Amino acid sequence: MRQSEENRKIVEDLVDRARDGDEDAFGELMQMYYERTYSVVFNLLHNIEDARDVTQQTWIKAWKGLARYRGSSEFFTWIYRIATFAGYDFLRKRGRRKEFGVEDDAVFDSMQDVDAPASKTSRPDHELERQELRTAFFTALDKLSPKHKTVLVLREIEGLSYDEIAEATKSRRGTVMSRLFHARRKVQELMQEQP
Fold first, then answer.
1. Which of 150, 139, 38, 140 is nearest to 85 (CA)?
2. Residue ending a domain, choose from 67, 99, 131
3. pTM for the complete prediction?
């Protein structure tokens, strides 16, 4: 049996037990997915404390709504959907856009393409270029519409497939692909406009 099938069965068992009120099983699910959930929220809010609060709210909502989880999508996709909506609700209620501080290195921890690990022999000028690239990327990302930003974060930072993004956003696969195309193009344009 493949590892992913084993993991899926473990998650299904934990979900079933949690639905029956087993708090320990739910705690195991949280341990499995907390960091990735936090990453999704942080990439929307760019504020460590706000991201922690919203991530906690996400898991509270998940616990309360666990009976509604039918298993038609993977569990982490269901959690990401809750996290994304919780993040947007937070931004709407605060009536502000996220804040981004270059000093918050945690934002780059999960990036795949933009944040390749530095080698031990990296030159300072290369490190500066990488930092400038990160800053330009997140500045551009912040200017996207919520729908475009969501698909770009889920694809480029979280590494979800088109089908997983479609499930998470309740969209068609073609819609996801179209939004990604436009989001990438807009980010490139915005990064070129930056001084």
1. 150
2. 99
3. 0.55
